[in-house]
Design brief:
Number of strands: 0
Structural class: mainly alpha
Strand content: under 5%
Length: about 120
């Protein structure tokens, strides 16, 4: 998963409208890096907070993949499903590998959510 997250960290910037300020992009990149560090240490709640803050600062749809992963790892299936589905709809220039991983997560989460108590 780390490879995919890092890959997204490098690629999320071009998908956002050019109207965003450089400081917003820089802030989002810093928040994403902090989130990745938390995620790597199994601190998924802290990672989710950073990913959401990064998205707020610079709303790249590619960040929704990270939000989905953190929510999934926190057992927040409905939130994860929503993030992955939005990623698939909005991140039209995401890599085929990341899209495939998001689709697998959506299929799995739909099954889990359907049978959740």
């Amino acid at each position: 998963m780390r490879t995919t997250l890092l890959f997204l960290a490098l690629l999320f910037v071009p998908t956002v409208a050019l109207a965003q300020t450089p400081s917003a992009k820089t802030k989002a990149q810093a928040l994403l890096k902090e989130g990745l560090d938390f995620y790597d240490h199994g601190e998924h709640a802290a990672a989710l907070q950073k990913f959401q803050a990064a998205y707020t600062a610079f709303p790249s749809p590619k960040l929704l993949f990270n939000v989905g992963q953190a929510n999934r790892d926190l057992g927040r299936r409905a939130e994860a499903l929503d993030a992955f589905e939005r990623f698939l709809t909005e991140a039209t220039d995401a890599s085929p590998e990341t899209v495939a991983e998001a689709r697998r997560s959506v299929a799995e989460l739909r099954t889990q959510t359907r049978f959740a108590p």
